[in-house]
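Internal tracking record. Fields below are filled automatically when a chain is submitted to the structure queue. Please do not edit lines marked as system-generated. If the sequence contains nonstandard residues, flag them in the REMARKS field before resubmitting.
Queue: standard
Priority: normal
Entity type: single polypeptide chain
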Amino acid sequence: MAARRWTGNFDSKLDIAISDARIDRSNVSGLIAGANLVLDGTDNFATRLAVSDACIAARIPLLSAAVGRFQGQVAAFAGHLPGQPCYRCYVGDAFDAKDCDTCAEDGMLGAMAGWVGSFAAMQAIRVLLAGVSTLGDPQWGRLHILDGLAPGVRSISIARDPACRGCSGR
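SYSTEM-GENERATED OUTPUT FOLLOWS
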């Protein structure tokens, strides 16, 4: 509620919807309907893949942010666009199971959450300003890896997987 109040005070034209529903394949489409961008910071691969698949079906860009221990990852995906990869192109299908590790199990450094969150916010602005501002370079398929131990950031390109069951054929 505080976030909705803050954004309303910031710009009354922003339309903010808040939900505390657990996301799964049965409700994700309804939760993202009408969005211009989906920001995913969920803590397990099964949910992340459900969100990615729903974004492709709804033709909505996805900004994925993840933190684990001393590392973070941020990437913008547009698997609904020709030639662009989706999140599933990056991680594959092996993580559809619910038995994968989560942040709660593996732990994470709190400062990493702040760093990754700030980086993801800037990337979200880039996606939303694409075609409107010189800052608007969505960097589709660029995975930014934030290393809290080194410290540093490196970026790699994710290729579209022609056999991907999430975005192939689109």
